[in-house]
Amino acid sequence: MIPKKFDYYSPTSINEAIQLLSENEDAKVLAGGQSLLGLMKLRLAAPTALVDISKLPDLSYVREDDDRLAIGALTTHDTLEHNSTIIEKFTILNEAASKIGDQQTRNLGTVGGSVCHADPAADLPTALRVLDAEFVIKRKKGERVVPASDFFVDMFTTAVGHDEILREIRLPYLPPKSTSAYIKHSLREHDFAIVIAGTALTVGEENVCEDVRIGLGAAGPTPLRATSAEQYLKGKIIDETSIVETAEKTVERVNPPTDVHGSKPYRLEMIKVLTNRALRLALSRAA
What we know:
This protein is an alpha+beta fold. The protein contains twelve helices and 14 strands.
């Protein structure tokens, strides 16, 4: 289908882009366009104007700082998949990016566009929730930093205001002896997920869990953290029994939807299965 008519703007700075957004209530930001343009063609979205930030300078980078990794909002999925630092230190993010669409989609799609679209079945939001990411949001008067726990507000809704732009994503480095893993269940590998489970695991002497984070995707309107399961496993020896019992606890206070891809009971069971697999994979990497 053909989108409805819209005005097109190509600003040369992020400040100009924010000004254009503030002057057009129905304007949308265009980055890679892999989500928005499809919705516009189906007329599920009909913005009166597009503010194209894809050519803005200095918004595509992966930069190592002393205590964190900084990722520019226009960094592509392909970069996340092949960057050596992300592969080594943030494996869960690398694995999530590698499962997004096909190669053409990963060449064009951006990390900022994906997280701002906030599809609960998308790959990156769950991985970033596990990694305790921080989101730097640019506005007219300076910037603000929002933690992942507050960034994803609801289905397709984030903390980014209409006249604001996500500029950067910050990832604190994981503690020593930490590994991570990402497991996705979908009809085909690069489809949107039916269920996602991701984990970051810090393993001490004799396989004692010093810290653990467990994230769930497609299990609710936003990416979730299985806090009850995390609290249960922390301080315990990671073995067959504790992994199974932790996986059982991941479904506490989780309310996944029923749709054409799977019922709520099916998703609840798959959450346990995928959490089990993710914990085992992370533990094997620690060894």
